[in-house]
Amino acid sequence: MPRAKGSRNKKKAVANVDYAALIEEKLAEKADTASQIDAKNEELVTLKTELKELKAQAKSLDKEIAKLQAARAAKEAAEAEEAKKAELEEVLKQLMAEGMSAQEILDKLK
Q1: How far is CA 92 from the centre of its chain?
Q2: Which residue has the higher pLDDT, 68 or 93?
Q3: Other residues' Cβ atoms within 10 Å of the Cβ of residue 95
Q4: Is the dihedral of CA 94, 96, 99, 101 positive or negative?
Q5: Average pLDDT over residues 54-63
Q6: Using CB atoms within 10 A of its CB, is residue 52 exposed (0-12), middle (13-18) or buried (19+)?
Q7: CA gap 80, 69 in Å, rounded
Q8: Is a pLDDT exceeding 90 seen at residue 79?
Q9: Residue 98 carries which DSSP code?
Q10: Which residue from 76, 73, 53 is spatially nearest to 65, judged by alpha carbons?
Q11: Residue 7 pLDDT > 70
């Protein structure tokens, strides 16, 4: 089938376009975008620095917490030992009051 003749295949006439103005506009947009990129990079550097400082502070706090927990555990262990010691002394006093001799008490402990 023959192709219809018409304006489909013709190049459209270009109206008077000011390419210099378009180029200047695009260059201005590019400069604006570049300045925004620079601003975001500066913000990113600042945020990274703040993040690094906060991570260091968190790490320091973790160390302090670990030290305090260890000290608390040691104190609780010492208190438990003292409680056992006091209980043992109380039992010994009670056995001595009941008339049991020191040798009999040692035999019971073995």
Answers
A1: 54
A2: 68
A3: 15
A4: positive
A5: 98
A6: exposed
A7: 16
A8: yes
A9: T
A10: 73
A11: no
